[in-house]
Amino acid sequence: MAGFIAYPDPIFRQKAVPRPPDESLRQVGQRLLAAASEVKAYGLAAAHIGVCEPVIVMTFSSDPEKRDYQILYNPRVTMVSGEAVAAPEGSVSLPGLEAEINRHPVAEVEYDDETGGRHTDTLQDFVARVAQHEIDQVNGIFFLDKLSRLKRDRLLKRHGIRR
């Protein structure tokens, strides 16, 4: 698999439009699955491979050492609960940079499978964090957007990245 799109590419600001899973969307899902497997990512959104589509792949395992990937089409967070907790997050599109991001420990997520069947799962802790991170990306929100402008700019400057 070729490299990932690098931040701050404009694709990371684009919001994907939900649509029924078809062959082209399933192909994006398969590309994401292959890319995630290759780099052992916890999750990936289509923007990481240069496509603005409503598709993510993520692990549903609460063990950070294991990967049991599922492809989610048209994912959305329908509910979050619990007090937000800060934990480090990063991106394959910004290697070597991590930031403490606040996320809720419980997230209810709706998504389509490859046939268009709708599913709802209640995710917790690490898995909820991965889902929120990747679904934000589908909605044009890069994880660094969760930081104050000052914190984000300092972090990017320290890593030699211009926005």
3D architecture notes:
- The chain has three helices and seven strands, in the order H-E-E-E-E-E-E-E-H-H.
- The model has no long low-confidence stretch (mean pLDDT about 95).
- The chain is globular, with a radius of gyration of 15 Å.
- Helix content is about 25%, strand content about 30%.
- It has one domain: Peptide deformylase (Peptide Deformylase), CATH 3.90.45.10.
- It is an alpha+beta fold.
- The strands form two sheets. The chain has a five-stranded antiparallel beta sheet with strand order 1-2-3-6-7. A two-stranded antiparallel ribbon has the order 4-5.
In short:
Helix content is 25%, strand content 29%.
How much of the residues is beta strand, in percent? Answer: 25-35%
Rg over CA atoms: 15 Å
Major sheet size, sense and barrel closure: 5 strands, antiparallel
Write down the overall mean pLDDT: 95
Spell out the CATH superfamily: Peptide deformylase
| Number of continuous helical runs | 3
Task: Tell me, briefly, the overall form.
Answer: globular
The CATH architecture can be named as Alpha-Beta Complex
Q: Which strands sit side by side, in order, in the main sheet?
A: 1-2-3-6-7
CATH topology-level fold name: Peptide Deformylase
Number of domains: 1
Low-confidence stretches: none
Distance from first to last alpha carbon? 26 Å
**Percent range for helical residues?**
25-40%
Class by SSE composition: alpha+beta
User: Order of SSEs, N→C?
Assistant: HEEEEEEEHH
CATH first level: which class? Alpha Beta
Number of strands: 7
